[in-house]
Structure formats: structure tokens, C-alpha cells
């Protein structure tokens, strides 16, 4: 009797914008095509991509060394900072290790959360902040939000009043968020700059340096009411700076790419801003994503994970989940992510993207 081997479900979902799809159908996916890589906000979900990040940065992109824009908000920027500072293989491992062992507990004060976040960031960067400024291959672009009016304050009454106003305004139109915050695009000086077309948000273009890049990374991940705004960053306009994901959650920006925007993402959809999560109709602008190749975990892969999903910030305080159990499950999830990396490299080797690629 012949035994029929069951094929393992695909670990990845592959989606392409119109121009990316045309190019890959014609030429395959080549490393020299890739000139931009976005990284979304999303907390510990980012460490669930460790194996995919390592495959892309340590094995695929080195096939064609060239300067590339790495554009991240919040944990997306931290992922890229680790890769630049610690290396393409060690960087993702370091970020995962630090996040897994973060000593976060329910009821902690925001000053305590700020300290452990700063310690984590120091662990990611070590003494290699200069790499983020001068790296020959990677142009780190950090997205943050400059708070306006009452939203600058960390006092509970002012902050929660601002958040209520933001939620109400965003329900009418995402563009109304410009009354509460402005976009900041922060990057090194020495190379061509990442810029976008004007939109509803005033955008500040600021250059970071070795002395202030850690503050910009901290600001990009400073979630209101969880960690305080980062105020009066050196060599920048005075003000209070918060999480870049508030405006640019999944980086739905008009990328001026000449090739392929390779987007390793933790979900199969692109939500413009953090407050848009409650509106299913608010999805990426197809024109913005025309050159994007979105690579994300498949639903079958996610369901196979110990938690049935990627790590989430709520796991730190999830009822019935001890810290020891959380660490164990997160470690298992991170280890499983090698499947995604292996599958991506197999697709590159066989160049059979057209067999699995969907429209974005």
C-alpha cells in the first residue's frame, strides 16, 4: 500500500502590488531589485518574523550589495536598528532575546516601563550607534510623531482628553489627526534622503546623529499612556515626540521606489494608522503599494503556533498566562519563524513566486 505524504501548508502569504507583480512575472525576484524595506509598528509581533528577517537580510540581500532604505516606525525601526548595529543574523536574535526577557509586569508605572525600554534599546544598540549613522548599505529612516497642543502632556487628564479627541476625529477622517500630531521622518545626513509627497500631515525632515539616534528610536516606540513622550531631543525642534505608528502604523506611504519595496510584515493587510485598526475599510492606497511585495505569515502558519498567533503586548498581562509560560511560548514561536525564512529562500531559489503570488 502506497503511503501518501502530506505536504505541509505554506508558511507564507505572498502579495504584490501591480508594478511589483509585473516585474516579478517578467524577471523573478532579484536582490538588486530591492531598494526599500518598510517595517511596521506592532510591538512583539515583530520578533515573530525573526527567521524571515534573517533570511532576507543575511542571505538574500547580500546577493546584491547596494544602498537601501529601511523605513520603520516603532518596533519596525528597532528591528532595523538591531540589524544595522549587531549584524543581519545576530540583530534579529538579540531583539527577540531582549523582548522575550523584558521584565514587564501589570501595574508598572510609566517611568519604570520607560527605564526597561531604554535598557532594551541599549541592549540592541550596544556601543554601535555610529553604525546607524554611517552604514554603507542601509539608510535607516525612523518615523515618529510630533505631538501638538494637549497631546504633548503625559498628565492623565490632558493625555486621555487628547486621545478621546483623536479617536473621535479619526472616526470622521484620518486626515483630522493632523490637529493633534505631525509626522517626523528622521534619517542620517550623508546619503540621498527619503522623502514623500505632501499629504494631510505636516512632515518634518530631521537628520539624526550618533548622540540622538537612541532618543529618536525611543520616541518612535513611545506608546501614549504606556511610556512618556520623548521631549526636546537634541538637535531637533523643541517638542514632545511619540510613537510613529500613531500616524504610520503599517507605513502606507507613497514610496518613490525605482525597483521593489520588499515588505516582511506580520499580517497580510496594511492599515495606515494605529487608530484605523477599528475600521476594516481603511486599507492601503493601491498606488502607494504598487511596487510592494508583501510577505506575511499564512493563516495556516499562524494557527500552528503555540498561541495560535504571533506574540502580542497583551501577553505580558494575559490572565492565566504566567511569565515563565509566556517566555516559553514566545521562544517556541520565534524558533518556528525559521520556517518562513526557509520558505522564502526556497521561493527565491526556484523563482516560482508566480505560482503563489496574489494581488495586493
What does this structure look like?
This protein has helices at residues 18-27, 50-60, 75-86, 90-100, 110-125, 129-134, 156-172, 213-220, 299-304, 323-336, 338-350, 353-356, and strands spanning 12-16, 34-39, 68-73, 138-147, 181-187, 203-207, 230-231, 240-243, 260-264, 292-297, 357-359. The chain is α/β, with parallel strands linked by helices. The protein has a single domain (12-359), classed as Cytosolic phospholipase A2 catalytic domain (3-Layer(aba) Sandwich). Strands 1, 2, 3, 4, 5, 6, 7, 8, 9, 10 and 11 form an eleven-stranded mixed sheet that branches. Strand 2 (34-39), helix 2 and strand 3 (68-73) form a beta-alpha-beta unit. Helix 2 (50-60) runs antiparallel to helix 4 (90-100), helix 2 packs parallel to helix 11 (338-350) and helix 3 packs across helix 4 (90-100). The radius of gyration is 20 Å and the shape is globular.
CATH topology: Cytosolic phospholipase A2 catalytic domain
Count of distinct structural domains: 1
User: What's the tally of helices?
Assistant: 12
User: What is the CA–CA distance across the termini?
Assistant: 43 Å
Largest sheet: 11 strands, mixed
Rg from alpha-carbon coordinates = 20 Å
Percent of residues in helices comes to 25-40%
Mean pLDDT: 95
Helix/strand/pairing class, anyone?
alpha/beta
Shape: globular
Highest-level CATH class: Alpha Beta
Judging by the overall fold, what is the CATH architecture? Answer: 3-Layer(aba) Sandwich
Give helix and strand order, one letter per element, not per position: EHEHEHHHHEHEEHEEEEHHHHE
Q: What is the number of strand segments?
A: 11
Query: Ranges with pLDDT <50 over ≥5 residues?
Result: none
Q: Report the β-strand fraction as a percent range.
A: 15-25%
Organism: Acinetobacter sichuanensis
Protein name: Patatin-like phospholipase family protein
InterPro entries: Acyl_Trfase/lysoPLipase
Amino acid at each position: 500500500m502506497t503511503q501518501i505524504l502530506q505536504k505541509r501548508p505554506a508558511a507564507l502569504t505572498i502579495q504584490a502590488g501591480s508594478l511589483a507583480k509585473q516585474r516579478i512575472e517578467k524577471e523573478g525576484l532579484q536582490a538588486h531589485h530591492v531598494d526599500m524595506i518598510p517595517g511596521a509598528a506592532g510591538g512583539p509581533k515583530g520578533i515573530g518574523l525573526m527567521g524571515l528577517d534573517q533570511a532576507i537580510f543575511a542571505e538574500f540581500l547580500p546577493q546584491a550589495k547596494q544602498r537601501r532604505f529601511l523605513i520603520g516606525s516603532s518596533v519596525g525601526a528597532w528591528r532595523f536598528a538591531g540589524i544595522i548595529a549587531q549584524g543581519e543574523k545576530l540583530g534579529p536574535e538579540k531583539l527577540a532575546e531582549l523582548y522575550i526577557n523584558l521584565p514587564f509586569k501589570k501595574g508598572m508605572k510609566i517611568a519604570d516601563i520607560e527605564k526597561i525600554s531604554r535598557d532594551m534599546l541599549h541592549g540592541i544598540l550596544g556601543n554601535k550607534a555610529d553604525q546607524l549613522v554611517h552604514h554603507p548599505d542601509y539608510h535607516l529612516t525612523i518615523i515618529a510623531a510630533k505631538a501638538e497642543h494637549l497631546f504633548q502632556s503625559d498628565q492623565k487628564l490632558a493625555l486621555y482628553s487628547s486621545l478621546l479627541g483623536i479617536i473621535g476625529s479619526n472616526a470622521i477622517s484620518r486626515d483630522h489627526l493632523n490637529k493633534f500630531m505631525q509626522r517626523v521622518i528622521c534619517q542620517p545626513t550623508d546619503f540621498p534622503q527619503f522623502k514623500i509627497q505632501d499629504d494631510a500631515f505636516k512632515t518634518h525632515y530631521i537628520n539624526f546623529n550618533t548622540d540622538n539616534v537612541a532618543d529618536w528610536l525611543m520616541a518612535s516606540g513611545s506608546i501614549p499612556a504606556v511610556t512618556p513622550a520623548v521631549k526636546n531631543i537634541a538637535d531637533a525642534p523643541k517638542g514632545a515626540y511619540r510613537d510613529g505608528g500613531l500616524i504610520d502604523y503599517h507605513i502606507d506611504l507613497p514610496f518613490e521606489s525605482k525597483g521593489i519595496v520588499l515588505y516582511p510584515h506580520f499580517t497580510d493587510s496594511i492599515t495606515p494608522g494605529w487608530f484605523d485598526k477599528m475600521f476594516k475599510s481603511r486599507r492601503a492606497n493601491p498606488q502607494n503599494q504598487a511596487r510592494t511585495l508583501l510577505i506575511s505569515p499564512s493563516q495556516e502558519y499562524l494557527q500552528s503556533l503555540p498561541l495560535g498567533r504571533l506574540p502580542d503586548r497583551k501577553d505580558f498581562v494575559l490572565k492565566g498566562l504566567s511569565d515563565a509560560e509566556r517566555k516559553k511560548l514566545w521562544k517556541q514561536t520565534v524558533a518556528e519563524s525559521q520556517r518562513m525564512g526557509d520558505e522564502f529562500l526556497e521561493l527565491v531559489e526556484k523563482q516560482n513566486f508566480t505560482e503563489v503570488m496574489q494581488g495586493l
